[in-house]
């Protein structure tokens, strides 16, 4: 089976990480994979045995033929569908109509009748509401050889560390950086101890006024695992997430989590059991959740323990096996 994956780019983002993972999983099962990227765009994740084709732009004449075209973003769908409609499969890692300006066009890409694969039940429900059709659900997983607790347990420090992935507000407003900034400012007035926020900023350095922070650039999976392990708390403030893999990675590293109910995270999050879950766009609730973890050690331990158990049920090995099997079956039907 030959699979074409139109990626535009493979930057250090969650979606790109998943695409590279799928590509490598297909190759490991003996399939041919051709990843298509636009000239000048980054390819940060390793592709083992995959052909990488660089094109000037995404137009139908530049899309190679395969047994299956795994489209994964609304902007890559149209040229692939125009070129090879019968081979197209729509991978949904996030429901674009919720956050892109051209909502009608994004919806159009889901209404062409091609098979869909979602990474959470929440996403499949969103697609059903938009198309009245169900697709396949293949939840993501964590690589536990990389994401695991620190040997010997968590290292204690008088200065607590809060980890947060700070995406550019203009291009990634659904990630809720402004909500987190307001929440951490509120938290700083509530919390009596010392703390520092590690801000991972993939696009550009971001700052939060009045809050001590350490700005970090894009990180590899191994680097991310080390950052999780040295943290006392991981926070997510997204308004919409297809799955929320960083939340699960933090759990796998034994870090207590405070997260908004951003949709896809409820695939594995249970409020007050393995995470403190707050409403999106509610800075005060987010701040109170952080305060609970930072001032109640027993609660933090309970969240950490339950999170570890949850993460053990979502392995990257199972995801790789399942996604390849699903794609093999779809290729036979197309």
UniProtKB/TrEMBL annotation:
Residues 213-308 form the Glycosyl transferase family domain. Coiled coil: none annotated. InterPro entries: Glyco_trans_1 (IPR001296). Pfam families: Glycos_transf_1. Keywords: Transferase. GO terms for molecular function: glycosyltransferase activity. It comes from the Bacteria. This is Glycosyl transferases group 1.
